[in-house]
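Hi U.,

Before I forget, here's the chain from the pilot set. I'm dumping it here mostly so it's searchable later in email.
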Amino acid sequence: MGNHTLSLYGETGITDKLTLQAYIPFFVRNVLNETRGAQSGTLLEPGIEHNNFGDVDIALRYALPFGKLPVSAMLMLGLPTGNSTQDSGLFTGDGEFNQMLKINTGVGASKWWTQFGVGFNNRTKGFSDEIRYDAEFGYKMLNNKLLSIFKLAGIESLNNGTEGATTTGLFSNNVEYLSPGLEFLYFIKPKYGVSFRAAGAIKGQNVLASPSFSFGFFYQ
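Structure:
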């Protein structure tokens, strides 16, 4: 099976301390490949697909007064705008409204930066609450035209929900993973460029096991 998403991610400063973030998956395509007999080649199950809008995330990030160390607090709202009732289970959303509180910090210099974050994700409609965490290390190369970033992201379920896991592994309950990834952003011009990201998992539960690849265009 496969998941393909066209999305927009953006953030803008409202004040010197307050930032608005949004992730909008405006087209999500899920496919379940056909099944054929290994020797006969006979079609056992036809392939199916489902295309729809996904779940939108809206967040506010605020810089906290914490001495010289840059610390920010973030409130993210996960809106159930995707389809969670598709008959074949190829959902484009989980159907629940979640709220995550997260703390981030980091340090950097002219050529490099690193940052860390940990958050508590409160989920509804029988889904288990989660601890989410991430870290990244970035380095600027080619006269600052190429940003190379190593990322590490993870989710740990608190297993306190009643919703069952889905058979397709998409938008399931009690999802867990630890995912390392590499991202490269190349500036074609000072304000825009292209990006590429590849990520996998060194452990996982109720998630698709194959690596994911992303291509994008960015503007700042």
